[in-house]
Inverse folding.
């Protein structure tokens, strides 16, 4: 792809602002505690707390924006499909959070080492409510799912997408931010939405954009 093509697609990156906007909505819901339900299972109770996994958990932010940016320049249709999936899935999550609030028991942090300080920092930013489904998992799974439609990827790139994505997903369990049902719920939600004809909406949006561009 030449420089002109990159510059032509660059304005579409502004659409990524929808993600922090959704984050603001999540923040409002996260500060509302309303009889949260603990859906922890025995398997979750036996899942160890592994603080080092806070690193891939935090790297989720870079993972999401970097790969969505990559999709934008590689295949604009895949880029918009990813955003539509993320927005649709998160809006459904917000409805669930409002009517069916869940919580996850957190471990007591007794050390002052750097890794546990990171865990403590994340805990302070994100209250233990609104866990089902997991937004960390659903957004990561969207990237992993739609990446298979990107053509001419390097093998190393494919490995990185899925390896980093898997680490982020399991990190939600090992740092006790989510439970297994949260993870499964996110994957099922994204899979079901992916089966819907979102491409039709995507094509309509792109066609309308081209039509307006030609008029101007």
């Amino acid at each position: 792809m030449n420089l002109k093509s990159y510059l032509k697609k660059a304005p579409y990156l502004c659409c990524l602002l929808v993600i922090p906007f959704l984050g603001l909505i999540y923040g409002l819901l996260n500060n509302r505690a309303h009889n949260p339900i603990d859906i922890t299972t025995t398997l979750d109770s036996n899942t160890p707390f592994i603080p080092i996994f806070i690193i891939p958990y935090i790297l989720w932010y870079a993972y999401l924006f970097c790969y969505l940016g990559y999709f934008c320049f590689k295949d604009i249709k895949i880029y918009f499909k990813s955003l539509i999936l993320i927005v649709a899935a998160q809006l459904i999550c917000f409805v669930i959070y409002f009517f069916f609030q869940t919580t996850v028991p957190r471990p007591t942090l007794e050390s002052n080492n750097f890794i546990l300080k990171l865990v403590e920092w994340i805990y302070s930013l994100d209250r233990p409510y609104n866990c089902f489904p997991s937004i960390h998992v659903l957004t990561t799974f969207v990237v992993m799912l739609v990446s298979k439609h990107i053509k001419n990827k390097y093998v190393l790139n494919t490995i990185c997408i899925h390896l980093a994505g898997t680490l982020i997903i399991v990190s939600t369990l090992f740092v006790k931010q989510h439970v297994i049902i949260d993870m499964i719920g996110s994957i099922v939600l994204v899979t079901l939405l992916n089966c819907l004809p979102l491409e039709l909406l995507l094509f309509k949006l792109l066609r309308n954009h081209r039509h307006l561009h030609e008029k101007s």
DSSP finds ten helices and two strands in the chain. The radius of gyration is 19 Å. The chain has a mean pLDDT of 90.
